[in-house]
Amino acid sequence: MIRVLYRVLLWLHPPAFRREFGGEMLWICDETSGSAAVWMLFADALVSLARQWVLRAGAWKLVVASAGGLLQITLGGLIFGLFHELHGARPFVHEPHTNSVDMLRLIYLAVGVAAGVVTSVLALTLWLRNFTRRRIHHDA
Q1: Predicted pLDDT at 106
Q2: Does one domain contain both 63 and 32?
Q3: CB-based burial of residue 35 (10 Å sphere; 0-12 exposed, 13-18 middle, 19+ buried)?
Q4: 48, 49, 123, 138: which has the fewest Cβ within 10 Å?
């Protein structure tokens, strides 16, 4: 039963990882089954599973890029609010005689923040791709 559960954990790993390490991992499972260390082996397999899918698959790049974009949007909103607070305007309050200059500033800010987010995500993605290539080349 332990071997079957361990095989399921192994099957959840990426195919390339299974091909390279699957046999060895099953051998280690067979060697430790029956001892208390088998639960440590399951914990290690779970950590390995998370590491393989998150770090090697590159999902963490999207998380970092999204966090950077959200940070920039938040900072843009804070700067916008501070700008309006310093100039005596109340942001996001509808008034029938809204000044078109304020609306133009809002549009410029929105376009600037969007361009900054796109630029940040693109730069981070390109840097990480280059970093990953160098790391793979170095490991090979």
Answers
A1: 75
A2: no
A3: exposed
A4: 138
Give the range of the structural domain holding residue 133, as residue numbers without chain letter. 59-139
Measuring CA to CA, how many Å separate 32 from each of 8, 22, 43, 48? 17, 15, 13, 18
Compute the distance between CA of residue 29 and CA of residue 2 in angstroms, rounded to an integer: 8
Residues 73 and 43 in one domain: no
CA distance 43 to 37: 10
Q: Is the dihedral of CA 11, 14, 20, 25 positive or negative?
A: negative
This prediction's pTM: 0.42
User: 13: helix, coil or strand?
Assistant: coil
Do residues 46 and 72 share a domain?
A: no
Q: What is the pLDDT of residues 49-66, one digit of tens each?
A: 888 877 776 666 777 777
Q: What tokens does 107 get? A: 């549009």
45 and 67 housed in the same domain: no
CB neighbour list of residue 46: distance below 8 Å, 6 or more residues apart: 9
At 88-109, the pLDDT tens digits run: 555 555 555 555 666 777 777 7
